[in-house]
Design brief:
Blueprint lengths: L1 H18 L4 E3 L19 E4 L3 E2 L7 E7 L2 E10 L3 H17 L15 E14 L3 E13 L6 E10 L5 H23 L10 E8 L3
Parallel strand pairs: 1-5, 2-6, 3-6
Antiparallel strand pairs: 4-5, 6-7, 7-8, 8-9
Helix pairs in contact: 2-3
């Protein structure tokens, strides 16, 4: 009798596993898009995109979506393909490489005295709201190493609209938000004022002391 009961329990467990929703994995690294003006000339410097700090509430393996005023829901069948901080670092690195024509030091080991722009990012809010918006609120720093230039400390809030239902629309909006944030960083590295836009709200910048 006991072996029969064990077999029935195993069959029930397997049936439960078969009925569970399949897990989907997502990335923040947007598909490469050719710039309107053509390829960017190679930069005379490298970039060093450091690990991204992100709030514990948002740094979860599954997608955390806002479902109401002050309410968050975990989508356990929708997960990030790697830890969210790693996803953000990789997506920022890719976008900055396309914007500046510079390689990341994670790909190319810099020689002694190599010119590098160091990028640090702290994410305060990482929001996904179905059918409404994706938002990225970050404090970031760009600082020159072994080269002339002024470092900046800035805060940006990037909001991208989500006009369609479903997880893919939210992911695409957050990918656009990361690209917009990288655009503001690239402007600062070029020595330009990281101006706001329809999606990027600049909450101020301050010069970094050496």
């Amino acid at each position: 009798m006991r072996p029969v009961l064990s077999l029935l329990a195993l069959s029930a467990a397997l049936a439960g596993c078969g009925a569970s929703s399949p897990v989907h994995y997502h990335t923040l690294q947007a598909p490469a898009v050719q710039a309107p003006g053509g390829a960017v000339a190679p930069a005379s410097f490298l970039i060093e995109v450091q690990p991204v700090n992100i709030s514990t509430q948002a740094d979860q393996p599954q997608l955390m979506v806002r479902t109401g005023e002050g309410s968050l829901s975990a989508l356990y069948s929708e997960r990030w393909s790697s830890p969210l901080g790693d996803e953000l670092r990789g997506a920022l690195s890719d976008a900055l490489k396309r914007e500046l024509g510079a390689l990341d030091v994670q790909l190319v080991k810099p020689g002694p005295g190599a010119a590098v722009w160091r990028v640090q990012t702290d994410v305060q809010r990482f929001e996904l709201e179905p059918g409404r918006m994706a938002q990225l609120d970050a404090t970031w720093r760009v600082r020159p190493v072994n080269m002339k230039g002024s470092g900046l400390l800035c805060r940006s809030v990037v909001t991208e609209s989500v006009t369609e239902e479903g997880v893919p629309a939210m992911i695409a909006a957050q990918q656009r938000a990361v690209v917009s944030l990288a655009g503001a960083m690239a402007s600062a590295i070029r020595g330009q004022s990281p101006a706001g836009s329809a999606s990027v709200q600049m909450l101020g910048c301050a010069a970094l002391k050496d």
